[in-house]
Specification:
The complex is a heterodimer of chains A (267) and B (290).
Chain A: H1 8-36, H2 52-59, H3 61-94, H4 100-108, H5 115-128, H6 135-160, H7 163-171, H8 176-205, H9 208-213, H10 221-231, H11 235-258, H12 262-266
Chain B: H1 16-36, H2 54-61, H3 63-96, H4 100-115, H5 118-129, H6 134-142, H7 155-179, H8 183-191, H9 196-207, H10 209-224, H11 228-234, H12 241-250, H13 255-284
The chains are: A mainly alpha (267), B mainly alpha (290).
């Protein structure tokens, strides 16, 4: 199709696709408008530019303690899920395990099974065991949904690199430990880092699991935002939303540079 | 596949932490959920619990709950259909994009919404669809509407929000399948005199059918388990299964009934996920990673 003069069908094709991209991105862009608009409720068109909503968000103790909790949980989840996920990927790709395929499906399943059920069932078990809702429960719940991302990005890297590199190192006299630390580990690093970025975002934005596992007064940012939106629809939410949007955009750019987003599609 | 016959290597032990995590906090809890759904009460505080099917009967006996189940499936179906119609052209464009930069930018445009928090994206739709939101204000300003159109606090709003959230999953599934279609087949059809529309309808579309099916199953599975979007964009006028599940825990603290609802949702999801994996692994012939 390329190289041919623009005809009507081609123009229609591009218009439709342009409209779809607009549909995807416009809601995200509109949030910025409301974050900067001074009216105390959501009103369009905007009447000016102000930073008062950012001030309100960053000076509210409720929002800040939630943001702080979300960041702490996400940091723990990143450490746990990259360690567990990368080890799991290596075992699945290099361990010659029987049933590796079935195991991969199991470890990836939290991506597709309803997260609300992961939250509900974890909550039911902790309640029954009399443990209640400690912060580590929240961390464990988030880790369950973050591990599949690390697993996926690491497996993608492992599937792409030539196993003969490792074999060559072994033939040249490196012992298995040396092969692992000096060949395998550096090669999978981009996949693990990409997985860590996904893990952070997934945990930071996680809602359905947190809903069941947070305690009153100890809520994560998405839970606080959800409760706030039900009663108030002002610019503070838009300002808070910008935090999530900026994180997402940063992640996308980082991922493209580290691993190439293309690898994500092959999956 | 020669690797299959090799000895299990010591590296296999690295699966242990993941296995432990999943057995203790994923498989075991689902077992607890299923067990609670069959018990008459809390087995820890009450030693006289009996096995019962009453939680399941309650779901199918009550009009309210049964309607919620139907509404969930209806919203899921409509969302899936629209996501397919919107996702297919974009996936096709992306799969056929020759410019690397164009491809990367399109991918960013698809993945950026995916990584933005679900509460944030739903909030964005509230600002667009509300009575005083962007769309209604603009329509009134243009003189098209005397009173605001009811765009949210109904199923319409829920579907719009869900489509926006799940279109990227449809696109990412379709891109892989469309990208694998042998272009020479299309060229052959053109060479034999088929016009562009006929080539698309009789060659490209049938060959991308596995992707269409897989993407639809994925979006349907995700849409029926959504919680935030139905709550915020449906308000009090929409009740779905996930909303009901959370209600049973937060308001009624009825863990048994919540468990029964969970088992029903889990069963539906499991069937969808297995079908999705089976279809995609047949298409790609590779180890299925998603």
């Amino acid at each position: 199709m390329n190289g041919r003069p623009l005809d009507l069908a081609r123009a229609a094709y591009l218009t439709v696709n342009g409209a779809i991209v607009f549909f995807l991105l416009m809601p995200i862009a509109i949030v910025l408008v409301f974050a900067l608009n001074p009216t105390p409720y959501i009103a369009f068109p905007p009447v000016g530019v102000t930073l008062r909503w950012f001030v309100k968000f960053f000076s509210s103790p409720d929002f800040m303690s939630a943001l702080w909790l979300s960041l702490r949980v996400a940091a723990l989840v990143v450490v746990l899920s990259t360690t567990i996920g990368a080890m799991c990927a290596l075992a699945l790709a290099r361990g010659n395990l029987p049933g590796a395929r079935l195991l991969t499906t199991l470890f990836l399943s939290p991506l597709m099974l309803p997260a609300i059920l992961t939250g509900l069932s974890l909550f039911q078990m902790l309640m029954l065991a009399g443990i209640g809702r400690p912060v580590w429960g929240l961390v464990v719940g988030h880790t369950l949904v973050a591990v599949p991302y690390v697993l996926r990005t690491t497996l993608a890297v492992l599937a792409n690199f030539d196993r003969r590199i490792e074999e060559a190192a072994a033939v040249l006299g490196a012992n298995p430990a040396r092969v692992f630390f000096e060949v395998t580990l550096p090669l999978i690093r981009p996949g693990v880092i990409a997985g860590a970025i996904f893990a952070f975002i997934v945990s930071f934005d996680q809602l359905p699991i947190s809903l069941f596992l947070v305690v009153p007064g100890g809520e994560t940012l998405p839970v606080v935002l959800l409760n706030y939106i039900r009663f108030d629809l002002d610019g503070a939410i838009a300002a808070a939303s910008m935090v999530s949007i900026v994180l997402a955009l940063t992640a996308v750019v980082l991922l493209e540079r580290i691993i190439g987003l293309r690898a994500y599609v092959r999956l | 596949m020669a690797t299959r016959r090799r000895r299990i290597s010591p590296i296999a032990w690295m699966i242990a932490p993941a296995a432990l995590l999943f057995v203790m906090f994923f498989i075991l809890p689902f077992g607890v959920m299923a067990t609670l759904s069959l018990l008459s009460g809390n087995p820890v505080s009450n030693p006289n619990v009996t096995l019962t099917l009453r939680h399941y009967n309650r779901l199918f006996d009550s009009d309210l709950y049964f309607d919620a189940l139907i509404a969930t499936l209806r919203i899921g179906l409509v969302t899936t259909g629209i996501a397919l119609v919107i996702g297919y052209p974009l996936a096709h464009w992306m799969a056929r994009m020759r410019s690397r930069l164009g491809h990367a930018l399109l991918l960013m445009a698809v993945i950026a919404p995916l990584l933005t928090g679900i509460v944030v994206r739903t909030f964005a739709w509230m600002t667009l669809l509300a009575d005083r939101g962007v769309i209604n204000t603009t329509l009134a300003w243009l003189g098209f509407a005397d009173k605001p159109l009811p765009l949210m606090y109904n199923e319409f709003g829920v579907v719009v929000g869900l489509v926006h959230i799940y279109v990227p999953f449809m696109v990412l599934t379709l891109v892989g399948v469309i990208g694998r279609i042998d272009r020479t087949l299309e060229e052959a059809a053109r060479g034999l005199g088929a016009n562009r529309a006929r080539t698309f309808l009789e060659v490209t579309l049938p060959l991308s059918f596995p992707g269409i099916l897989a993407g639809s199953l994925l979006v349907f599975a995700l849409a029926i388990s959504a919680y935030v979007t139905p709550v915020l964009l449906g308000g009090n006028n929409v009740l779905t299964l996930p909303m009901l599940i959370y209600q049973q825990v937060s308001a009624s603290f009825n863990l048994g009934f919540a468990g029964a609802l969970g088992v029903v949702l889990l069963a539906v999801s499991l069937v969808l996920v297995f079908a999705y994996n089976a279809i995609l692994s047949r298409v790609t012939g590779e180890r299925q990673l998603a």
